[in-house]
Amino acid sequence: MINKIILAIGSNYDPMVNMDQAEIYLRDIFADIQFTRRIWTEPIGIDSDPFLNCMAMASTQDDFEQVQGTLKQVEWQMGSTHQEHCRGLVKIDLDILLFGKRRYHNADWRRSYVSTLIEELPLP
Asked: Residue 61: exposed, middle, or buried by beta-carbon count in 10 A (0-12, 13-18, 19+)?
């Protein structure tokens, strides 16, 4: 079965470079991935520099756990760690917001940048 996925992507550490690198990785993983524009946002719940964020949509035959594992592998390859996230340093953050018909990270759906950028995706 093919599932549509929506990703939230963000970085607050060398964000232009890290977002470009994440896009390269994601284009290698998802042949049909489409990205929104990138926008700057203020951090929520952490003391840090502003974030650069975008959204992406793709399709996959993999199940949720496989996709989640692949995204965590990309974060790891890019040097993003849980310890750094706890200190407010986010090299790259790749979150699945929608997998098939199921929503994840419900609080993120209420963020203004998500509602703004999701309008740029051709939703299923």
From this structure: exposed
